[in-house]
Amino acid sequence: MRIISKQDVIKTVRECCIEGTTLLPEDVLQSLKDSEAKESSTLGRSFLNQCIENAVIARNEAMPICQDTGFAVFFAEIGQEVLLDNGTWDEAFNEGVRQGYTDGYLRKSIVSDPLFDRKNTRDNTPCVVHYSFVTGDKVRIVFAPKGGGSENMSAIKMLKVSEGRQGIVDFVVNSVINAGGNPCPPTIVGVGIGGTFEKCAFLAKKALLRKVGSVNSDARYAELEKEILEKINASGVGPQGLGGDTTALAVHIEFHPCHIASLPCAVNLNCHAARHVEKEI
């Protein structure tokens, strides 16, 4: 067994928070540049240019890409041969977030109770951690801060099995169109298909972590991604909802087996500042 220090986890999470909110991944930045070159709308090109310029400034000056530094969401793969030296993983992640959002001067956006006592926790905790356990003695941490504007445009629908492929296409495309400029397009569109109600939503969020423009390994789902992206970009919503060709940079689908009576589908949108960072301990 390998023993990992709780302090090392805290330090890594802290670094993730600061880097993840200031550094736009290269694949996202390149996709914005490619979209700007192809965008037919003058206003759309102008907005895309501002997105690119903003990302460069954020990187050069170590400043947040967006003032909404998001709900701190993590995907953690814990090796089965790993033990934490003291305390719990949740304690380590929350302390890392507390330090990262404080030391990085990042906006704290979390309220302690969703309905009755909406008081800011003042340190952006608690965070959300999706744990999975894998072989080996390493810990892989992916941080994906999720802003409220795009998260609020999430949608899930328990489709009838008879609605099939066309029902999926219509639901995803209409969800993006109805969201309009609220999620700050161009967006990355994460789609979950199958599983149960909660598994489907998880898959949609996890799909956002894929490299922009990567295709599903199953050719049928890759073709579905392509069709949905084309229909979304033909909608005319455009950058920031101001009209144009670039409503989404990519559509990424993840799927899971489901019940014979079910066809769940979830949509999770990420704004043009599709932030995430990965570290290993």
Keywords:
2 domains; 4-stranded mixed beta sheet; 281 residues; 10 strands; alpha/beta; 60s Ribosomal Protein L30, Chain: A
Summarize the structure in words.
This protein is an alpha/beta fold and 281 residues long. The protein has two domains: 2-19 and 66-145, Dihydrodipicolinate Reductase, domain 2 (2-Layer Sandwich); 148-274, 60s Ribosomal Protein L30, Chain: A (2-Layer Sandwich). The chain is 40% helix and 21% strand. The protein has eight helices and ten strands. The chain has helices spanning 6-22, 26-38, 42-61, 89-103, 148-151, 164-179, 197-207, 219-233, and strands at 2-4, 73-79, 82-84, 128-134, 139-143, 155-159, 187-194, 248-256, 263-270, 277-280. The strands form three sheets. Strands 4-2-5-10 form a four-stranded mixed β-sheet. The mean pLDDT is 97.
Shape: globular
CATH topology of the largest domain: 60s Ribosomal Protein L30, Chain: A
* Proportion of strand residues: 15-25%
Q: Count up the domains.
A: 2
The low-confidence runs, each spanning 5 or more residues with pLDDT under 50, are none
Strand order of the largest sheet: 4-2-5-10
Question: How many β strands by DSSP?
Answer: 10
Q: The biggest beta sheet, please? A: 4 strands, mixed
Structural class: alpha/beta
Q: How many helix segments?
A: 8
What oligomeric state best describes the polypeptide chains here? single chain
Helix and strand sequence:
EHHHEEHEEHEHEHHEEE
> Separation of termini?
14 Å
